[in-house]
Amino acid sequence: MASILSIQGLCSGYRNQQVLTDIDLEIEEGSVTALIGPNGHGKSTLLKTLSGLIPTWKGDTQFLGKALGNNAPDRARAGLILVPQGDQLFGGMTVEENLMMGTFARKDRDAVQDSLETVFTLFPRLKERRGQRAESLSGGERRMVGIGRGMMANGKMMMIDEPSLGLAPLIIEQIYEALGHLANQDRSILVVEENPSRVANVASAFHLMDGGRIAWSGNTNDLANSSDLLKTYLGG
Predict the structure, then answer these.
(1) pLDDT of residue 236
(2) C-alpha torsion sign, points 65, 49, 189, 42
(3) CA-CA distance, 112 to 17, in Å (whole number)?
(4) Strand order of the sheet with strand 188-192?
(5) What is the dihedral of CA 155, 8, 29, 218, to 10 degrees?
(6) Could you give all domains of the chain from N- to C-terminal order, each with its CATH number?
(7) Which pLDDT tens digit goes with each residue over 103-116?
(8) pLDDT tens, position by position, 63-72
């Protein structure tokens, strides 16, 4: 399969603190790829750098065969969509208004309603709460809105940062069921997840980050046969 995202020698960080060092990564079009590893080792920083929220210090990133623009709006318009950790919703706006915020760069306005219905099909709870203010939602509901807003952008690739962080097991199951549905539609997804077992049934490629570098890469079978390596990095 062709690469939708190609990263070579990427370095990045915050002010004078380097976090990412020589990241090389190929993401296949239509695949679900998981970034796994312990907290504080650069997974979220990589997504922020790819989305344009943090500047690239060095290296080359190609999206759909073209160099990306230098800021977040340019990259979103190119179709690279970030669902950030914590979701960052507009608390005073309703669920539906928050979802519609994801459509700012879309030109196919006639298809927006279809996208909204798809989100409501995957997350029925959001349809029930479409007129409710986001600030009154539970943590799981907020996470659903964040993912749904990313879907509403109808981009070429969606990057999701820690979709299960701090959520109850039942909510985690619902969210990963939705991601599995997107995977079956050949959506291109890059997901950050500390616990590889949660994403093992959805992702086809895995990259373990340690100290701001890619320490290991493999497919689903490789993951199943790498228990000792994962125990070393993740403690289980």
Answers:
(1) 54
(2) positive
(3) 41
(4) 80-83, 157-161, 188-192, 32-36, 205-210, 213-219
(5) -130
(6) 30-48+68-234 (3.40.50.300)
(7) 988 889 889 999 99
(8) 999 998 778 8
